[in-house]
Amino acid sequence: MSNDPKSIIEELSDHYQISEIKEQKADLLLLKIPKEDAVQFIRELRDGQNYTHLAFMTVIDYIESGIFTLTYMLHNYAAHHNIAVHVDIDREQTEMESIHELWVHAATYQRELREMYGIRFPGSPRLDDDFCLEGWDEIPPMRREFDTVSYSRERFFDREGRITTDPREHMKQIMYPIHTDND
Amino acid sequence: MSLKDLISPFYVWQRAFEKPYTQKHPIQERPGAPRYRGFHVNVLEECVGCGTCETICQNHAIDMVQVEGLEPKPGDSGLRPKFDYGRCCWCALCVDICTTRSLRMSNHYAWITEDPTDFNFIAGADNMSWNGEEYGYRRDDDYHLLRGERVKMEMLAPEEGLKSFEEVMKGYTEEQAKDEADRCVECGLCVATCPAHMSIPDYIKTVREGDYEKGLRILYETNPFSSTCGRICTHRCEEVCPVGHQGEPLAIRWLKRAIVDRVPRERYREILGDEVVENGKQVAIVGAGPGGLSAAYYLRRQGYGVTVFEAQARAGGMLRYGVPSYRLPDNQLDKDIEYIRSLGVEVRFNTCIGREVQFAELIDDYDAVFMAIGLNVPSSLRVKGEDHPRVLSGLQVLDDVASDKNPGVGKNVAVIGGGNVAMDAARVSRRMGANVTVLYRRRIADMPADPEEIHESQAEGCTFVTQAIPVEIKDADNPDQVTIVWGEAEMVADEKGGRPRPVLQEDRMHEETYDCIISAIGQGGSLDFIPGDYRDQIEFKWGKFVPGDYQQTALQKLFVGGDIANNTADAISAIEDGHHAARGIHKFLTGELVA
How crowded is the C-beta side of B361, counted as CA atoms within 13 Å? Predict the structure, then answer.
């Protein structure tokens, strides 16, 4: 019932616009699919090609290109093989079709992605419930524009006695002090 | 209630005799996985204290601190990272960004202590059980957050370069410059090594931001020869750039040029905002090279009347007469010099101290004197027959070319020496159509010339004969030619730990005939113009001035700098000497400097 991954992709290529296909390891194939076709494609892998398990869902923030790349990691138990389905979505219009009806536990991943990156999955159960942050009132913390350092500096005090030294200034003081006068 | 319900609780008891899954106290620690992100390890001798780990840390968990026994030295701030494990999240960005790869992680993950201040420690310096641990996370070879490759600069192909004196290096485009500037980690380790202590990370930042006006202002704080230095600086800063530990160092020199190339000379005054308010005091400067004119610039900005005495017909010193125009085009040197002169610096050309003007007049007539006369007497080869008419000096050849005179090198030329003057004399001769052989007594790696100069000389077809010691120069059969006798040398280790010495092998001698021999093994200075009673008050060593603080001599009015007063003998050191002397003269004339 399970074909080898390459012939699966070949077969599906007739119906889907699959790109950036890369055999990362013997048991892991990466590929990209347009947002509109993604859920249908994933359904096909689950029901037609025996990739019955959603191992995890995550996202990569490509802030420079203005996109989030969603990653759906699907597993085929019989073949011991994984396919990572990448889906680019707009970083500002962050909305993606939910897959909680394909796998119930996807709702939990989607809640996490909503909280950490602000991605909306309309219809996903309890999407807006707190996942692990309580009372968070900033922009989602895993978005790369979030400034972790200043956030923690504003909210938490430093350990007592911590001091740091600027390398350039330190070298100046010790190595060439009299060349530092103003004109 | 069924029988099964009654019996089932007792089933549990059968487990009591099996080996438990849980572990007994005290816990036997299980080793972390080989690439586990455990507690930090730092190899202190490899770390250079650039602080890039501190900058990238998203949790503000790293401080750069002094470590007992580590002092700052060129390329190493002497500081080392101290970790606050109350904040660390073990993301390992610090390990991934580390410029030297000295920072790593062990696979240790359990640390119990009753004193919370213990969790603030200097990795590698404080005595931790995981120091030197073989396992743990380290950066993969093929993964680096820093780009190791320098942005390549377009250059004239060697066969094209040979046809003219056109500038070889073409400069960065705006995009290339930004791309290269983007590789800088802004640690500032280079600033201490730059003789002029230029604010290198700050001006690189202006390239990244495309703010060339601000860049120019930063350059002129320490260097009024930025167009020149952007081309021919010895760039010792690049030798200590931490990015160079795992790749190529930043092209700092080219980035300086990228700024100056984008600001037209006519706009300098407006951008730099230099206003001269005369303060009535007069300073004499001897030598219109980079040292003298830098002093002139900084003194003029403070309102001093400045008169520069120059023996030659044009300003620039060794930059004009010693650096060929394919490395430094005249108009670029002029750009720097014209701006300095535009502030009202008077230059008296063809005026030699001891000839047109006497040393004592300067001392008597001016409030202070800065002397940066350079080195212009070629060193002797110290072999028999070196006064042969077909033995030319490298300096003279370069001087002739810069003055549009034909030095008459002929078709077959031997150049003796391994410094920049030798390389330039060789490349100039190639451009005049000669076959060139460079004879050097040591190995290529020992040559004092810039590596780029050596490579370009080779690319342009100069033949290098190394470990060759000249023994005698004599007449050839043809009176327009000259014959050199040279012997092969073996490199012999120096017992005192110095660099290896070439030793002549008398059984392996060669005799070759050339149209001319260009001698370029160094140069010295001439201080004969200083009268004896002054001379006794000034300290000299090996024919050079020995300046004190602020380049001042014991003859209080006299400040000295440049090649005649330092051991590095390059443009950037002369520029700093000039700037520093200007600081000193200002302090001296305002009574701040007590000699």
Answer: 11
CATH 3.50.50.60 fits domain B378-523: yes
> Which chain B residues are Cβ-neighbours of A165 within 8 angstroms?
63-66, 79
What's B40-122's CATH class? alpha beta
d(CA B272, CA B442): 46
Residue of B50, B65, B187 with shortest CB distance to A165: B65
- d(C-alpha B433, C-alpha B360), whole Å: 48
Q: Is residue B36 packed enough to be buried (19+ CB in 10 Å), middle (13-18) or exposed (0-12)?
A: middle
Tell me the CATH architecture of domain B274-376+525-589: 3-Layer(bba) Sandwich (3.50)
For residue B249, give the amino acid letter: P
What is the fold of B169-270?
Answer: Fumarate Reductase Iron-sulfur Protein; Chain B, domain 2 (1.10.1060)
- For the purposes of burial, counting CB atoms within 10 Å of the CB of B553, is it exposed (0-12), middle (13-18) or buried (19 or more)? buried
pLDDT tens sequence across B12-64: 777 778 887 776 766 667 889 999 999 999 999 999 999 999 999 988 899 99
CB A26 within 8 A of CB A6: no
Min Cα distance B112 → chain A (Å) is 19
User: Does the ipTM exceed 0.90?
Assistant: no
DSSP A48: H
Same fold: B274-376+525-589 with B378-523: yes
Show me where the domains of chain B are located: 40-122, 169-270, 274-376+525-589, 378-523
Q: How many CB pairs under 8 A join A and B?
A: 87
Interval B513-550: pLDDT, tens: 999 999 999 989 889 899 989 988 899 998 899 999 99
Q: Where do the domains of chain A lie, and which CATH numbers do they carry?
A: 5-180 (3.30.460.80)
Rounded alpha-carbon distances, angstroms, from residue B105 to B117, B134, B461? 21, 10, 50
Check: CB of residue B228 under 8 Å from CB of residue B319: yes
What distance in Å separates the CA atoms of residue A8 and residue A5, rounded to the nearest whole number? Answer: 5
Give A158 to chain B, closest Cα distance, Å.
9
